[in-house]
Amino acid sequence: MMMWIVVAFASFFMAYICWYAKGNGIIAILISSIIMGVLLAQTFNFTQGFYMYHSLEVITWILGVIILHRKPKEYAIEIGLSFVIALVYQLVMPHWG
Fold first, then answer.
1. Which residues contact 40 (CB under 8 A, 6 or more apart)?
2. Degrees (nearest 5) of the Cα angle 24, 64, 14?
3. How far apart are CA 50 and CA 64, in angstroms?
4. How many CB atoms sit inside 10 A of residue 94's CB?
5. DSSP 80-96
6. Given Cys at both, which of 1, 22, 41, 45 links 89, Cβ 3.0 to 4.6 Å?
7. How do 51-52 and 44-45 pair as beta strands?
């Protein structure tokens, strides 16, 4: 029961961070690249060869790419950072799927 209270309380802050990721500025680009990098790391395996985990995660990643679309220059920075974040994420965290 206590875990669900913590999850419900934390979801408010996570929703605000995701809402701020669609904004303007370098912080918003960094937040959206972290979101896309984690989604990319959960979708594809880069460290032990290229492998797709699940098709629903691919759909989630594609929707994230569409929703977090920006101006071309900002988008290129966002995609580049997301690949770096995905690689670091896979080296540090195991895949839970």
1. 61, 82, 83, 85, 86
2. 65
3. 20
4. 6
5. HHHHHHHHHHHHHS---
6. 41
7. antiparallel
